[in-house]
Amino acid sequence: MGLLSSLFGSKKGPAPPGAAPRKKVRKADMAPGWSAEASPNAFYMRAFCASDRIPALAHALEWLASQEAPLKPENLGGASLNSTTWEHAQFTCLKTGQMITLQCNRDDGSPNCLTREEIMEFARRLKRPGVSGNTRKAAKHLEATKVVVACKLPGAHAGRETFRTNLQLLRYFATRAEGLIQIDGEGFYEDNRLLVDMHKARKYK
Q: Residue 66 pairs with which residues in a beta bridge?
């Protein structure tokens, strides 16, 4: 069972973290899905979007508020909330006070595009002999990806509620821009279903 299922609809509880948390972080408050020792400072979740029509942040914040997951804008990188060409934003999760950093990285079609390099690096991990149909499906989606919306969390110090809010934020963009969600330490998700387990993929690197 994957992390999204445990947070959004499974009757079972979330899988325990892969390692013990730091002493100042209660185990019960940790966001599941990754090792506290492996990710002490930063943790990423991404929506690989096949559409380049990314919604404005104002619409995302309005939707999150309706889901009882309010965010307060802190830094929009010079863009307005109504802009559809935003690149960087920081928010405070009002339920926890923790900071959420959001990036919108676009493939500009140039030969040295860093976003395209990141996308193809993920695709490379999926391309190996004898992969499943789901893995081929994820790799094909990555090849068609035009935009990567990425959330950065404060590593092992990201509580469950902050983690959940980030997932809701990414799901907003994924459902509106043909996105496939990827979570560090987990894999690729389609809706709430774990499509590709990257723990297994790493065994074949």
A: none
Which amino acid makes up residue 29?
D
**Residue from 198, 200, 196, 52 nearest 138 by CA:** 196
User: C-alpha distances in angstroms, 162 versus 23, 70, 179, 195?
Assistant: 19, 11, 21, 23
Cα-flanking dihedrals φ and ψ of residue 173, to 5°?
-70, -40
Contacts 24+ apart (CB under 8 A), 75-81: 81/56, 81/57
Domain boundaries along the sequence of the chain: 30-202
Of residues 160, 180, 195, 168, the one with CA closest to residue 2:
195
Q: HSE on the CB side for 113, CA within 13 Å?
A: 14
Q: What is the pLDDT of residues 71-100, one digit of tens each?
A: 999 999 889 999 999 999 999 999 999 889
Element (H, E) at 194: strand 193-197
2 — pLDDT class (breaks 50, 70, 90): low
Helices (H), 67-195: 114-126, 133-143, 160-176
Which class for 51: exposed (0-12), middle (13-18), buried (19 or more C-beta within 10 A)?
A: middle
C-alpha to C-alpha distance for 139 and 194, rounded to whole angstroms: 14
Of 17, 46, 64, residue with least CA distance to 189? 46
Beta-bridge partners for 183: 45, 187
